[in-house]
């Protein structure tokens, strides 16, 4: 047995860094000889002998080692495990994740990793290998070639030469070990070069300032002098190894050599280098460009090739391979044609030196490398790349020179057509406005120019030239008393929170050094005078010691609070807060599989939920066990888990057994699957009617609703896990089950038959609405799958019906609260005036937080009247940039259910879900900002003698859509002082006048009138008088009442004349309303804030 293991040396696992902890434990287990037992490769002996006893003792030792290295939270996770192997399996299943999400995150971290400037090469390689190991731990394959590619591709720019050199290394030597050693050596060499340059810079500065330093030497403190002497000594050591190539002596470089040859020119001489390029006699070099690795600049000897040329400093030379200096006459640009994949393209070689005595044209590899281009040489071919884009090509000739695939253009050819970009001519003409340059070329004021690029590019010189610096006056008087002036500086957010749960520090400065305690949240609102300097973390960049762009922001005189803490008016800890304040303290992890549920910390609760579901299935005789045969088609089953938060905030664990209906075949095990669902318009009309008639409303929820449906097809299903059903048996379903394609239809048929048996009449306008006339009252019920509302003016009749409903189905009855996405507030004030308000405050609050708009400033309207959206000219938007479609869908749900005030704005942004840009996303954010300021708004229904009948408004906006030039239709109908149904949509065809557009909108509203009247008749509220539809267009009114203006309306589609028929039948009546009272105006166009608020108030929008 190995030596005693020090358990204190093992770090405890707290739920993070599991891979590192697992590696540590494996090492410890191997040291104790227990590795095979823990990982299940050494099984427990079957015979009860000394070997089995030793195995049990070793397993207990392994369990002790594992549990000793776990904190308390992890021990509770594995306290039911009976062996060390079960412990490690339990931990692996919880923390060694191999899900698709984990793989995606690991891949993203690996591919997005970049080397930091502060990291060494060794640290960089270790980081890449660690990321690769994490990929391997979750089952992903990462080869050494991929790791080496990642290491090399993420190196800084200073390793560019190394990257190119590594490509020339043979494949058998391109190993991770070789790469590591060579990179470490390269880093050391680069570090030495940097030290040399630093040493010479210091030395040069010292020589220039020797005199001044001598004069101040005696005034310097000894500590500073010793520090300086130490730095100089270190630099002297570096200088001893340096040799000057000018004079051959050590201790300096040629740049500072005293023996450097002097020239007569007063200008600084420029010296370029070039290696010899040899060619046999008779080779024509006029049209040949050679790629030269030794040339420090592009060079040519043919003056006629230059399209422009400028003078160079006198004495500028080129030193070729035999130490011969050739004079440089000038420098300019040469236009050439380059061959790329068989096609010739015009290009320009810039900053080419004119060297008449060179007798050849050289293309410099060094210049190409400095531009960030890479040169790939393979066989007899060389390619110059900028990223993945091919810039130029060359081929290896018989003289072992890479000849560029260029052909020259003489200056006469080049001058025939002057082709330049708009930016170039903007610069040449003295930074004239881009539009004026374009107009001068177009009008012929400037001739002979063809613009190769017509795009306007931001001109940096123009920006600098038009800027001016504000005067920053210095403050002469400094306050002496505490509180006269306060400077604040906020540091944070900090990753590590304090003991008080805070992650920011506020610094208070001025006449005194005050600091807000780190565990207190600063109450900035209590400061009357604030002088702050907003700053951004610039990743270590230094600020100017005397910044000129910082000024004190001074407001009117006022009182400054000395202590920046919140002072509560009373101790609210004594108040009993509602349960929702603590709802988020305990988050329940919802398992995805049965195994996960049984192995989790809430396994007892999930077991209880499964037992309840199986009991319900048994009570309903959901299946019958039969013997499995080979000819049977058997579908699978699956447990689906969820947690519902009750009003007491005690989570309710629910387990639902679902059939895997995706494997069903039409015509074999299902036929019809349609099942009706109610409309939100129906719910709103019923709530408005309940206020009008003072109905009592109750809400009910049918538990395991789908289990009540009777199946007409023969379906066999695998037994569910934990059902204790013997092998060889399957479940023959007798009732519908969640997951079956026909389950919803079966449940709806069952409930419908029950309602008919109870004497209810099914509605025609909405098949999910039922009505029953009793002796004293009427009972109305509306069903949405398994949730419903039931109402009546007679409570006795209402509860009598609910008793019958309970006998047939297992239901939960409650006061109306949260129903199919809307929150219902039913209350009566002291004057016995009842109101029902529907809203979606919780949903909107979650939506705002989901799209990170909780800190945005609210706005007054959801749509900007000054912005009209249209398709972007260029489709440059990626869905990854912002969640546009998801946001539109979320907003549309709110607009349809309880928020008619955002209906138009949401409809407008929904047109561009597949083609949008930043302008459209800003429109989405504006709606969210509006909702942030009106989170608690909803529709209020209250009894009002003027609104006991349905009243409608219709309107249109002519040519609203800038892309299709179609008009916008909108309508709204009100009952009990609140909107019950509304619409905002683009018309189906282009209209030719405002009258026609209003006529089409009124026709669409008439179809809604027909449905509303039928629905009211179904619930026992028949409408005898025509429904009034109000419009603000006299021409459309005349067109509805009389077939006038034949020449201008004969093209109108016949379907829109439906309104005339309903007018003649007495179904509707039309009347004029002034535009400022046209409530449908908010559904057709963006309106100013004051007018908008007036209209939505008349729609019944109130704060809950």
TrEMBL record:
Listed Pfam families: gag_pre-integrs, Pol_BBD, Retrotran_gag_2, RVT_2
Cited SUPFAM superfamilies: DNA/RNA polymerases (SSF56672), Retrovirus zinc finger-like domains (SSF57756)
InterPro entries from the UniProt entry: DNA/RNA_pol_sf, GAG-pre-integrase_dom, PolX-like_BBD, RVT_2, Znf_CCHC, Znf_CCHC_sf
A biological process from GO: DNA biosynthetic process
UniProt keyword Zinc-finger, yes or no: yes
Gene Ontology molecular function terms on file: aspartic-type endopeptidase activity; nucleic acid binding; zinc ion binding
Chain spans, region Disordered: 201-235
Compositional bias per record (Polar residues), positions renumbered to this chain: 223-235
CCHC-type domain span: 243-259
Keyword annotations of the record: Aspartyl protease, Hydrolase, Metal-binding, Protease, Zinc, Zinc-finger
The UniProt record lists the keyword Metal-binding: yes
Protein's name according to its UniProt entry: CCHC-type domain-containing protein
Organism encoding this protein: Gryllus longicercus
């Amino acid at each position: 047995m190995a030596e005693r293991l020090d358990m204190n040396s093992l770090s405890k696992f707290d739920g993070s860094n599991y891979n590192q902890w697992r590696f540590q434990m494996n090492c410890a287990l191997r040291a104790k000889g227990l590795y095979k037992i823990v990982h299940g490769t050494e099984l427990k002996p079957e015979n009860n002998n000394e070997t089995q006893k030793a195995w049990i003792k070793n397993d207990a030792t392994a369990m002790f080692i594992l549990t000793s290295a776990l904190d308390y939270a992890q021990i509770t996770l594995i306290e039911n495990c009976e062996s060390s192997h079960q412990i490690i399996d339990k931990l692996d299943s919880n923390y060694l994740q191999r899900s698709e999400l984990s793989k995606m995150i690991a891949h993203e971290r690996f591919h997005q990793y970049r080397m930091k400037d502060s990291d060494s090469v060794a640290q960089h390689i270790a980081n890449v290998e660690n990321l690769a190991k994490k990929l391997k731990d979750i089952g992903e394959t990462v080869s050494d070639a991929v790791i080496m590619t990642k290491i090399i591709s993420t190196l800084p720019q200073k390793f560019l030469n190394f990257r190119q050199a590594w490509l020339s290394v043979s494949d058998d030597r391109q190993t991770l070990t070789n790469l590591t050693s060579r990179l470490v050596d390269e880093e050391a060499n680069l570090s030495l070069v940097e030290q040399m340059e630093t040493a010479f810079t210091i030395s040069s500065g010292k020589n220039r300032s020797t005199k001044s330093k001598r004069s101040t030497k005696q005034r310097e403190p000894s500590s500073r002098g010793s520090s300086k002497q130490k730095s100089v000594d270190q630099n002297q050591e570096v200088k001893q190894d340096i040799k000057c190539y000018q004079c051959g002596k050590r201790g300096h470089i040629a740049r500072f050599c005293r023996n450097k040859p002097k020239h007569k020119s007063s200008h600084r001489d420029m010296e370029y280098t070039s290696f010899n390029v040899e060619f046999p006699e008779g080779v024509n070099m006029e049209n040949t460009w050679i790629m030269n690795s030794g040339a420090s600049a592009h060079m040519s000897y043919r003056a006629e090739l230059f399209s422009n040329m400028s003078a160079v400093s006198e004495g500028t030379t080129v030193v070729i391979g035999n130490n011969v200096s050739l004079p440089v006459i000038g420098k300019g640009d040469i236009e050439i044609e380059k061959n790329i994949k068989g096609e010739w393209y015009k290009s320009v070689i810039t900053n080419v030196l004119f060297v008449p005595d060179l007798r050849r044209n050289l293309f410099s590899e060094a210049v190409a490398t400095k531009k960030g281009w890479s040169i790939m040489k393979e066989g007899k071919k060389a390619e110059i790349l900028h990223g993945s884009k091919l810039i130029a090509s060359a081929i290896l000739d018989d003289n072992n020179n890479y000849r560029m695939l260029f052909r020259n253009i003489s200056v006469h050819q080049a001058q025939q057509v002057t082709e330049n970009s708009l930016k170039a001519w903007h610069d040449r003409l003295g930074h004239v406005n881009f539009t004026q340059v374009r107009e001068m070329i177009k009008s012929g004021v400037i001739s002979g120019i063809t613009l190769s690029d017509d795009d306007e590019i931001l001109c940096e010189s123009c920006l600098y030239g038009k800027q001016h610096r504000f005067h920053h006056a210095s403050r002469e008087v400094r306050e002496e008393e505490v509180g006269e002036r306060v400077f604040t500086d906020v540091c944070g957010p900090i990753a590590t929170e304090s003991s008080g749960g805070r992650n920011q520090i506020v610094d208070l400065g001025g006449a005194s050094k005050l600091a807000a305690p780190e565990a207190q949240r600063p109450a900035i609102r209590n400061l009357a005078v604030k002088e702050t300097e907003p700053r951004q973390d610039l990743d270590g960049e230094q600020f100017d010691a005397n910044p000129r762009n910082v000024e004190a922001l001074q407001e009117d005189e006022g009182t400054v609070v000395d202590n920046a803490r919140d002072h509560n008016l009373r101790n609210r800890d004594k108040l009993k807060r509602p349960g929702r304040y603590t709802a988020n303290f305990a988050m329940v992890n919802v398992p995805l599989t049965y195994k996960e549920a049984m192995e989790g910390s809430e396994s007892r609760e999930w077991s209880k939920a499964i037992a309840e579901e199986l009991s319900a299935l048994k009570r309903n005789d959901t299946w019958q066990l039969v013997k499995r045969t080979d000819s049977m088609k058997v579908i699978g089953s699956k447990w689906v888990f969820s947690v519902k938060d009750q009003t007491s905030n005690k989570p309710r664990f629910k387990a639902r057994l679902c059939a895997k209906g995706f494997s069903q075949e039409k015509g074999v095990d299902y036929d019809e699957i349609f099942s009706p669902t109610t409309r939100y318009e129906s719910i709103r009309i019923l709530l408005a009617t309940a206020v009008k008639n003072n109905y009592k409303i109750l809400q009910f929820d049918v538990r395991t609703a789908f289990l009540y449906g009777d199946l007409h097809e023969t379906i066999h299903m695998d037994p569910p896990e934990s059902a204790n059903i013997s092998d060889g048996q399957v479940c023959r379903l007798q009732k519908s089950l969640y997951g079956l394609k026909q389950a919803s239809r079966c449940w709806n048929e069952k409930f419908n038959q029950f309602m008919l048996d109870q004497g209810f009449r099914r509605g025609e306008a909405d098949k999910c609405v039922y009505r029953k006339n009793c002796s004293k009252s009427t009972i109305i019920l509306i069903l949405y799958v398994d949730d419903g509302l039931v109402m009546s003016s007679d409570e006795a009749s209402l509860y009598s019906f609910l008793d019958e409903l309970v006998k047939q189905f297992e239901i939960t009855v409650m006061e109306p609260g949260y129903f199919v996405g809307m929150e219902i507030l039913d209350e009566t004030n002291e004057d016995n005036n009842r109101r029902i308000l529907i809203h979606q405050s919780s949903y909107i609050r979650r939506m705002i937080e989901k799209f990170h708009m909780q800190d945005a400033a609210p706005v007054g309207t959801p749509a900007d009247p000054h912005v009209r959206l249209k398709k972007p000219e260029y489709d440059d938007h990626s869905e990854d940039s912002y969640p546009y479609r998801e946001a539109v869908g979320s907003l549309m749900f709110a607009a349809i259910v309880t928020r008619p005030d955002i209906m138009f704005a949401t409809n407008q942004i929904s047109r561009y879900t597949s083609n949008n840009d930043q302008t459209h996303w800003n429109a989405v954010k504006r709606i969210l900002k509006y909702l942030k300021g009106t989170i608690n708004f909803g529709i209020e229904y209250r009894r009002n003698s003027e609104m006991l009948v349905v009243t409608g408004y219709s309107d249109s906006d002519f040519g609203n859509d800038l892309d299709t030039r179609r008009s916008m239709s909108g309508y709204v109908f009100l009952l009990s002082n609140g909107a019950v149904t509304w619409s905002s949509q683009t018309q189906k065809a282009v209209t030719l006048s405002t009258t026609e557009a209003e006529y089409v909108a009124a026709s669409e509203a008439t179809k809604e009138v027909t449905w509303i009247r039928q629905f009211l008749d179904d619930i026992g509220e028949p409408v005898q008088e025509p429904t009034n539809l109000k419009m603000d267009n006299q021409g459309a009114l005349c067109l509805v009442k009389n077939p006038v203006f034949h020449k201008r309306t004969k093209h109108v589609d016949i379907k829109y004349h439906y309104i005339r028929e309903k007018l003649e039948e007495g179904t509707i009546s039309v009347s004029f309303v002034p535009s400022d009272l046209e409530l449908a105006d908010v559904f057709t166009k963006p309106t100013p804030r004051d007018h908008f608020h007036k209209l939505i108030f008349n729609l019944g929008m109130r704060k809950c």
